Amino acid sequence: MASLTISSKDKVLKEVEIKKTLFVGREKGDIILKNPAVSARHFKLEKLGARFIIHDLNSTNGTIVNGEKVSTKELRSGDQIMVGQFVFKFDNPDQEQGAVDSFASDDIGGMTMMLDPAKVQAMMTAKPGEKEAPVEKESAKLFLYQSSGAPKVLKIEKDTTMIGSSENSDIQIKGITIGRIAASITKAGDIYEITYQGGMAKLKIDSAPVDKHKLENGDKFSIGSYNFEFRTEL
After folding, report:
1. Region 140-232: CATH code
2. d(CA 227, CA 95)
3. Of 85, 122, 138, 210, which is least surrounded by CB within 10 A?
4. What's the per-residue H, E or C state across the chain?
């Protein structure tokens, strides 16, 4: 059965089985969270047969799924929902696993072998007797420039990297104008995209406020007084 595991500051608070449509809020709902960042009626998790759809109920601070603010979204097993300081992990053991984009399948003798396309290419171009060279790709990086000293280097290894003042952020930056989740960087293959999520300090690319931007090697952006540079090549 599908379930939500609710945690705050890395501490698991409760696990709830999803037997019907659930409402979450500060004052009304099946799950009540007494926190000012949570709206009175924050979001609805709708059960439609084997499908589960999350709907933001015009909340003040928004509903964030995997680092992206959403109004309506169908959930997949493993998705993470963030509301203020609370994280809801959605698990559905009955849900079929989605296709794995980074692999190709080859049917051999009734068995399915998973082949990494990059390794297949290396095997095809290798000379006879030559050992297969390992195929490795270095993670993209953020350089966080500080007032003095060398920049701090931060690897972007997750599919969604969250930046903000929250202790649950992957990259924590502090300040009264910084949103709990100020921005998120999503990775899809070789494509990286940064999205503004909230807070008085806006996401800026070359000093111009933006809501969303596809990151290219060498792009510079800022959130409040924090200045970053995105690098895929060193």
Report:
1. 2.60.200.20
2. 41
3. 138
4. CCEEEEEECCEEEEEEECCCCEEEECCCCCEECCCCCCCCCCEEEEEECCEEEEEECCCCCCEEECCEEECEEECCCCCEEEECCEEEEEECCCCCCCCCCCCEEEEECCEEEEECHHHHHHHHHCCCCCCCCCCCCCCEEEEEECCCCCCEEEEECCCEEEEECCCCCCEECCCCCCCCCCEEEEEECCEEEEEECCCCCCEEECCEECCEEEECCCCEEEECCEEEEEECCC
State the SS3 of 99-126.
CCCCCEEEEECCEEEEECHHHHHHHHHC
CA separation for the pair 82, 62 (Å, rounded)? 9
Residue-wise pLDDT tens digits, 117-164: 444 445 444 555 555 455 455 678 999 987 767 788 898 888 888 899
List residues bridging with 90 in a β-sheet. Answer: 4
What global pTM score does this model have? 0.46
List pLDDT tens digits, range 6-58. Answer: 998 878 899 999 999 999 999 888 999 988 889 999 999 998 888 899 999 98
Residues of the chain with CATH 2.60.200.20: 3-91, 140-232
Q: Which two tokens stand for residue 163?
A: 């930046």
Architecture per CATH, domain 3-91, reads as Sandwich (2.60)
